[in-house]
Specification:
By secondary structure, the chain is mostly helical. It has one domain: Flavinator of succinate dehydrogenase (DNA polymerase, domain 1). About 15% of the residues are buried.
């Protein structure tokens, strides 16, 4: 079933996306700004899998320098990568 997540779950996910590496913070925050409200439970589960990775390993995946061990993560990584090409609409000086 492709039901979008609720606002409480999205807020928790947004909090979990705050990382120790600024590059990850920015990319994940922009992704959630653009697509967060329409994420399905399956995509949230995949994102949770990615968020279990150490920051450097996650950045290598997000930057396209490595491939995921689980090929099922490829569509979500492609969606995250597409966020790199779209300017983030965050106000200047705001934190992710």
């Amino acid at each position: 079933m492709n039901v979008a997540i609720d606002t409480v779950r999205l807020s928790r996910l947004r909090w979990r996306c705050r990382r120790g590496m600024l590059e990850n913070d920015l990319l994940l925050a922009c992704f959630l700004d653009a697509r967060g409200a329409s994420l399905t439970e399956g995509e949230v589960a995949q994102l949770d899998t990615l968020l279990d990775l150490p920051d450097n390993d996650l950045w290598d995946l997000l930057a396209g320098r490595s491939v995921p061990a689980d090929p099922a993560l490829a569509p979500l990584l492609a969606a995250l990568a597409s966020t790199r090409t779209v300017p983030c609409q965050r106000p200047r000086g705001s934190l992710p």
